[in-house]
Amino acid sequence: MIDPKPTASHFIDGAYVDDPAGAPIPVIYPATGKEIARVHAATPSLIDSALAAARRAQPAWAAMSGPERGRILRRAADLIRERNRELSELETMDTGKPIQETLVADATSGADALEYFGGLAASLTGEHIQLADGDFVYTRREALGVCVGIGAWNYPTQIACWKAAPALACGNTMVFKPSESTPLAALKVAEILKEAGLPDGVFNVVNGAGEVGAALVGDPRVDKVSLTGSVPTGKKVYAQAAAQMKHVTMELGGKSPMVVFEDADIDAAVSGAILGNFYSSGQVCSNGTRVFVQKDIQDAFLSRLAERLKNAVIGDPLDEQVSFGPMVSEGQMNIVLNYIAKGVEEGARIVAGGKRADREGFFVEPTVFADVTDDMVIAREEIFGPVMCVLAFDTEDEVMTRANATEYGLAAGVFTRDLTRAHRVVAGFEAGTCYINTYNDAPVEAPFGGVKASGVGRENSKEAINHYSEVKSVYVKIGEVEAPF
Ligand code: NDP
Predict the structure, then answer these.
(1) How far is residue 311 from each of residues 252, 314, 355, measured CA to CA in Å?
(2) DSSP reduced 3-state for 39
(3) Are β-strands 128-130 and 136-143 bridged in parallel, bridged antiparallel, or unpaired?
(4) What confidence score (pLDDT) does residue 328 get?
(5) pLDDT tens digit sequence for 104-142
(6) Fewer Cβ neighbours under 10 Å: the N or C end of the chain?
């Protein structure tokens, strides 16, 4: 088993560094509540050296050829895959997510991003635009400069890679700040990138809480900020970045709808609802937490769901048989338990779960509420835990209005055997990432992101290139230059 203690708290300019003057941040294993490692928050001088290193390294990195940059990213992808077991153990200790999940969805997803954008790096081009009289315009796709990445705690390795891979492929450098709840994984990503041949200063990691993030966002040396986090934090970070007209990508929260029509394959819909509510103990931004089920099949859906939930194996997430782990922290557990109490108080009916599991650590049972109405707090606010709300509906028009009646717009899904209806429904969803007869798949080839309050910009796919580069337009005159005088 990997020793979770990091070599040091930060990775700056190609080396581990520490400053014990920074506030201590204990790393707690969520399955026991015990401290397993400790880092220190970055002090102002460390933040300064990370930004200075990123600034210094950027011109030479951008001047390298695309294939050379890409080769380094792809080598890092290979190293991550070779070390998947130890990286997955670390991810499980950092987050509490079951190792049966982290082995297939975290480091491997980070490797996919490094491989994909490593491949794209060689293909980045501008275009040629022919004009009259032989004149023409060509465009250059240029790096933005120094990017800051700020991560949430649910997918620490994946988020670091999803931000670093496109940023670095385009010739940017990055300073990444993980969530203070999960400070370990991104350090390993930095170490592996260095081993793969990444020049010093191109990818730096500084640990710390929100103040460290704010210091990075407000620094004039930074050209772009990419945040994965909640809507309230997103609003603050977006405003701070706007004051200096910086580029942003905002991957924020959601309260996504999943609509199950009466002609759906019920087992497939139940599987989708389980994946979209209980994977990572419900700590997934795109979760379909409002499950709208057409009235005629509601009883069948609920009884099948309750049966399937009995198969969840709750326990130590380092045990490969375990399929359901704890919340990331005591604080998050209490937030979720408060929402469950609120649901009961508002009159929703508990079909499964509903309380803290009877064991050490921060476990909340997989919980399903039926008879939920649109006005209830549990149907309106992002809970970010294993709490599914089931809402009944009659008609397609009605459910579309209700599904879209939210400030969020991250994801949405539909289960039906009628493909015409499926395409009509997804066209009507006010959401950036939609699913037909599945839920929560996020391959690197597909754009991922939200509309409305759920965010700005897209991660993954070729779309991400547009958010980590800008286009310079060059007019070339072939004929004579005419002037009025
Ligand atoms: P938070 O918004 O609390 O924090 C996100 C990150 O921002 C953390 O690293 C945090 O630091 C940092 N931060 C907090 N305040 C500031 C500030 N003023 N300036 C700069 N940085 C700041 O989110 P959580 O970590 O609690 O993550 C859960 C949220 O993330 C949910 O809403 C979820 O939906 C969303 N999310 C969105 C995803 C997407 O792709 N759309 C994917 C995953 C999660 P610290 O916490 O260390 O203090």
Answers:
(1) 31, 9, 17
(2) strand
(3) antiparallel
(4) 98
(5) 999 999 999 999 999 999 999 999 999 999 999 999 999
(6) C
Cβ(346)–Cβ(374) under 8 Å?
no
Q: How many CA atoms lie within 13 A of 23 on its CB side?
A: 9
Give the CA distances from residue 24 to residues 91, 149, 184, 407, in Å, rounded to whole numbers and listed in that order: 20, 22, 14, 37
- From CA 70, how far away is CA 124, in angstroms rounded? 11
Handedness of CA 62, 66, 72, 73 (dihedral sign): positive
Which amino acid is present at 166?
A: P
Mark the ranges of the chain whose per-residue pLDDT is less than 50: none
Q: Which of 479, 452, 449, 473 is nearest to 463 (CA)?
A: 449
Q: What residues are paired with 34 via a beta bridge?
A: 29
pLDDT at 445: 98
Index of the ligand 1 atom closest to the CA of residue 240: 19
How far does residue 221's CA lie from ligand 1's centre (Å)?
22
Kindly tell me the sign of the dihedral angle through the C-alpha atoms of 325, 330, 335, 341. positive
Indicate which atom in ligand 1 lies nearest the CA of residue 152: 25
Amino acid, single-letter form, for residue 469: S
pTM for the model stands at 0.97
The reply to whether ligand 1 has any atom less than 6 angstroms from the CB of 214 is yes
Indicate which residue's Cα is closest to atom 22 of ligand 1. Answer: 210
Please give the distance, rounded to the nearest whole angstrom, from the Cα atom of residue 29 to the centre of ligand 1. Answer: 20
What sign does the CA torsion over 148, 151, 156, 161 have? negative
- Catalytic residue list: 163, 251, 285, 459
Task: Retrieve residue 250's tokens.
Answer: 């905002």
CA distance 417 to 199: 52
Q: Is residue 209 lining ligand 1, measured as CB closer than 6 Å?
A: yes
Tell me how far the alpha carbon of residue 228 lies from the centroid of ligand 1, in angstroms. Answer: 6
C-beta of 216 in contact with ligand 1 (< 6 A) = no
| CA of 455, closest atom in ligand 1 | 41
- Read off the tokens for 94: 């950092």
49 C-beta closer than 6 A to ligand 1: no
Ligand 1, atom nearest to 231 Cα: 32
Alpha-carbon span 118 to 100, nearest angstrom: 27
CA distance 461 to 116: 8
Closest CA to 316 of 250, 263, 360, 256: 360
* Residue 404 Cα to ligand 1 middle (Å): 24
